Amino acid sequence: MMPSVRCGFTEVSNHSSVDTMWDPNNSKSEKVNATKAADCGSVSVAFPLTMMITGIVGNSLALLLVYNSYRKKENKRKKSFLLCIGSLALTDLFGQLLTSPIVVSVYLSNRQWDRIDPSGKLCAFFGVCMTMFGLCPLFLASTMAVERTLAIRTPHWYSNNMRTAITKMALTSIWGCVLVFALLPIVGVGEYTLQWPGTWCFISTGDGQITGNTFFASIFAILGICSLIVTFACNAVTIKALVSRCKAKPAASQSGKQWERLTVETVIQLMGIMCVLFACWSPLLIMMLKMISTQTSSHQCKQTSSSLLQNVELQKDCNFFLTAIRLASLNQILDPWVYLLLREILLRKFCQVANAVSSCSMERNKETPISADSKQQTADMGMIQKQ
To answer: Could you give the CA distance from residue 100 to residue 82 in angstroms, rounded to a whole number?
Structure first.
């Protein structure tokens, strides 16, 4: 039975091993890689290249919109939110700029990392970037979720105590703490290793004998999961508060209609944020915990195994891990759209369709968009508008 080869996956028969497919110094590996590149190399390069371009364009546009809005806003509460969303877009943009060109270069080098990083220092840099620009967006999403909850649940306290200086301090603390955490493997706590299929570096999950490796990988996964839980919990509390406040408004009044429209838009946006975060990050974090518990790692796909069954099972885990990290990277592209860019483009149309499906009155469907002045009639409505 002949070996079966396809993009990102290799089934091995007879005495061949995954190592011969992965080792850049093996002549057989070079021949196989050249054949694979002819069949699927263009597709492989297109994936990180498309993600890089899309991420840079989306986050740059979001930064431009945030900057223009920040200069015009006089309400300090709205400036705090704009600082958060601007920081998220800036973080995602730097994450794309620092990692994607490296991945594209490796693919263009026929997936031979040693050609561009013979010393191994670039791998450590890549791992630091992956850790920092992975955790930072999660923490920033949690910060914005907490900020929204405080603004809706305790508007008076929020108005009297929240200052842009506090927001800036919180954002700086997040960046600083995550950077210190990401640098731990550089000082000997944990390790960054080259991952399957040899195009990226990340936290090693299967080398328990390395000092602090299991601790470092576990803390990354636990911090990520905790961040998702905080974001989900705060958004759920915010949705409940918005719906309760909307029901308390007289339905026939103009204020009640405005609250209803803004509540529907905000609830849809918050649910979209939760769905995107869960879909993009839960596979990677859960897979990391699984691989930590079994003491396996994606970089072990290059190693020879005496058991063909173990090779196949490990290869499946490695390919799923690669898919999971791609989903997590996709979050950097989706962030500016779910938080900012799609709100005015799609949410109003979506709400009109939802109203029609639910047999709402024709008068409500034909209501003209709420002007900026009418949105700012009350402080509470202004807080919903900023979401």
So the answer is: 26
